[in-house]
Design brief:
By secondary structure, the chain is an alpha/beta fold. It folds into two domains: 2-147, P-loop containing nucleotide triphosphate hydrolases (Rossmann fold); 162-243, Formyltetrahydrofolate synthetase, domain 3 (Roll), CATH 3.10.410. It is 38% helix and 15% strand. It has nine helices and ten strands. It has helices spanning 2-9, 21-36, 49-55, 68-86, 104-116, 126-129, 135-147, 162-172, 183-194, and strands at residues 44-47, 93-97, 120-124, 178-181, 202-205, 225-228, 230-234, 239-243, 263-264, 270-271. The protein has a three-stranded parallel β-sheet with strand order 1-2-3, sandwiched between helices. A three-stranded mixed β-sheet has the order 5-8-7. A two-stranded parallel ribbon has the order 4-6. Helix 4 (68-86) packs parallel to helix 5 (104-116). It is globular, with a radius of gyration of 20 Å. It starts with a helix and ends with a strand. The mean pLDDT is 94.
């Protein structure tokens, strides 16, 4: 409803799918686009040098220190996300979101790595410069939209079994060798299939900190078994939830929500947002 309303009111609609291409982008295509018939004309991957260094095994307190070798090692993670988007017949635009600690050498090195992947890379400085820091990104996205002639593509077909869909996700998106199913997962798959829900898409519940199910596996993990611990039905939403690893699907609010600090005075001035 929100997407159709936005499309009726604006020339361009931007949706933040959330997290990496292994979660937000995959679900946007395989769940949202599949059920709505609305496909993105362009895909933007937001990357940071800090994240690349983190996947290059740099400790948090040292992320502000120049480290080209860590960027090279951590780039395997960004490459995996780029390749995942390409599996949906879209070549992503990479927005390199700069931090004040990023050095000229690190920026140049990251852009050179992206150039080798044959993807467009654009510097984004929205945090520091507001809308002016995002103009080049916006122009690049609009140009890409106007040139998009790619056919729409999904990862799996509706008629595939639930296990086939999960195995497809694990091997194609999470780069696993195989999938293991717990007895509870097996039981629920049989039950939901018997009830007539075997045609629904999969909504994977896993960590956002790794392409795998294990938040400690950084970079682009491979040659591992992807475990499915439970399967649950969200009939109203129209998908099957598959659980892998330790995951909290509904994070709790802090003891004092930020909303309690927000106020509007008699003149309509809003305070407490930041």
């Amino acid at each position: 409803i929100a997407a159709r309303a936005a499309l009726s009111l604006a020339d361009y609609v931007v949706t933040e799918a959330g997290f990496g291409a292994d979660l937000g982008a995959e679900k946007f295509f395989d769940i949202f686009s599949r059920t709505s018939g609305i496909y993105p004309d362009a895909v933007v991957l937001v990357a940071t040098i800090r994240a690349l260094k983190m996947h290059g095994r740099v400790r948090k307190e040292h992320l502000g220190v120049e480290n080209l070798n860590a960027i090279t090692e951590g780039f395997a993670n960004l490459r995996a996300h780029i390749n995942n988007i390409k599996k949906f017949n879209r070549t992503p635009i990479v927005a390199l979101n700069l931090f004040s600690t990023d050095t000229p050498k690190e920026i140049e090195h990251t852009l050179s790595l992206l150039k080798k992947e044959n993807v467009q890379a654009v510097i984004s400085e929205g945090w520091a410069k507001g809308s002016n820091g995002c103009k080049n990104l916006a122009k690049t996205v609009i140009k890409s939209i106007n040139l998009n002639l790619n056919e729409n593509k999904l990862l799996y077909e509706d008629k595939a079994s639930l296990k086939e869909k999960i195995r497809k996700l694990a091997k194609e998106i999470y780069n696993a060798d195989a999938v293991s199913f717990s007895s509870l997962a097996d039981k629920n798959i049989l039950k939901f299939t018997r009830w007539g829900f075997g045609n629904l898409p999969i909504c994977m519940a896993k960590t956002q900190n790794s392409i795998s199910h294990d938040k400690t596996l950084l970079g682009a993990p491979a040659h591992y078994i992807f475990p499915i611990t439970d399967i649950r039905l969200s009939a109203g939403a129209g998908f099957i939830v598959a659980y892998s690893g330790e995951i909290n699907t509904m994070p709790g609010l802090p003891p004092v929500p930020a909303a309690e600090k927000i106020d509007v005075d008699e003149n309509g001035t809003i305070t407490g947002l930041f």
